[in-house]
Amino acid sequence: MDMPVNPVWQQHLFLGGWQTGEGEPLAVTEPATGERLSQVKAATPADVDRAATIARDAQQRWAAVPFDQKAEILRTAAALLKERAGEINGWNTRECGSIGPKAEWELQATYEQAQMAAALPMQPSGQIFPSNLPGKRNYWQRIPLGTVGVIAPWNFPILLSMRSVLPALALGNCVILKPDPKSSVCGGALMAQVLQDAGLPEGVFHVLPGGPEVGQALVEHPLVKMISFTGSTAVGRKIGETCGRMLKKAALELGGNNAQVVLDDADLDAASSCGAWGSFLHQGQICMQTGRHLVHRSVADAYIERLAARAGNLACGDPWRQQVHLGPLINEAQARRVEDILQRSVAMGARIVVGGRRRGNFVDATVIADVTPDMPVFSEEIFGPVAPVMAFDSDDQATDLVNESPYGLAAAIHSGSTERARRIAERIRVGMVHINDQTVNNEFQVPFGGLGSSGNSGRFGGPANLDEFTTSQWVSVLDEGIQYPF
Ligand code: NAD
């Protein structure tokens, strides 16, 4: 079945409304087949300037829209996401290689983000503080930042863009979204349509598909007051440097190399199920992917046997035409990179227990054992369907191994004693830790984010959104003028 293609987004850019763009067509390709599915209009750095100027002019009008009208637009957007599930999930499957349940989960999570954003405009927006001057009143209030730039990756292109776009809009900002060029339809054009049809006023939201040069122009534009970036640590660092120089707010959600620790008293059936889910979901292309399985030596063989049995049962293929557990990696470069990490680690003594095979963009679910910290499969973010297993001998050693990584996004700890697991949790440097669960955990109402090379401590979700997407102003009022000593 062909996907519905809209000539509007094939030919136009969304600059607060559909407009002619000067850029080249950007091909939309299906990673499972290499087939060209469609095209979008690519943005240029000049379009960033157009969008930023339109957004600057629209922002104060948008901020002044009464809170209940903003909430209604966001609730309508939530309803449209559900109404268009067939179209959005279809594009997520074909454009991004997502299996059906992953696409459905992503859309449901985005729906929840939209509902939560709809509740933001009615939150209290300030506080009153006392003054030591009689008759003086101190108001402290949240105010919008102005225009927020959102730069998103391709792996969960709808959720990871909308988790910033929707709360930023709800709090009175205009937003310019730059989706990844590999997910410009589902993570860009379809979202523009949803928000336009939900009644968002002209000029408030913009979508600029394109690569690094468009992203860089967005980061460097003086009218863009904040960058919310989700992507690799290398690019996040560069963006952070630019924002630091420009004194611009930056929320950076970056890579991970997340550990699942399995203690000797763990339920191995549950732990291996969590391990398989954490390593293989969406072909491992998740920042919270379980990239390291640290297992107590006394149970390591039993754990590997269970994990390998689960991996061996996973079908890998075209998620649009077949019923599979794993789809393709996003492109051949990524698949080759995973293969290379495996080959280099095997050359250093690691042992592939199951999987290890690449066919074009497809990599089978792989369990690799006898891993040591100096191997690339341990130290690098893999972003592919690979579960590296390393044995440890004590809780202290497990703690040190978790902390050995410069990343600090998520971790999981499995133990029959939650007290023992909590003692380890308190000593590991990660932003999110899950006891007797897996690392790929995301609940929209709980602040989400990492430490170390995984980010600059920005947080998404729940109460954190109010702080992330606003700044504040102190207004003091005296009813009459006051005289100072000179
Ligand atoms: P990437 O950093 O290459 O690209 C992410 C986005 O940045 C894309 O839109 C890209 O076009 C843009 N970009 C690239 N260079 C840029 C530049 N110089 N200036 C401005 N924008 C630029 O990341 P990727 O490889 O597409 O995504 C995978 C990475 O993202 C992994 O490291 C993964 O862990 C991370 N990630 C993190 C989270 C999180 O919440 N922490 C979530 C998903 C993915």
From TrEMBL:
Key word Oxidoreductase present: yes
The protein's superkingdom reads Bacteria
Taken from the record, one Pfam family name reads Aldedh
- Tell me which CDD domains the record gives: ALDH_BenzADH (cd07152)
Concerning InterPro entries, the annotation shows:
Ald_DH/histidinol_DH, Ald_DH_C, Ald_DH_CS_GLU, Ald_DH_N, Aldehyde_DH_dom
What residues does the Aldehyde dehydrogenase domain cover?
Answer: 18-475
Task: List the keywords (alphabetical).
Answer: NAD, Oxidoreductase
Residues of the active site: E253
Would the keyword NAD be found if you checked this record's keyword annotation?
A: yes
Family according to the record:
Belongs to the aldehyde dehydrogenase family.
The name of this protein is Benzaldehyde dehydrogenase
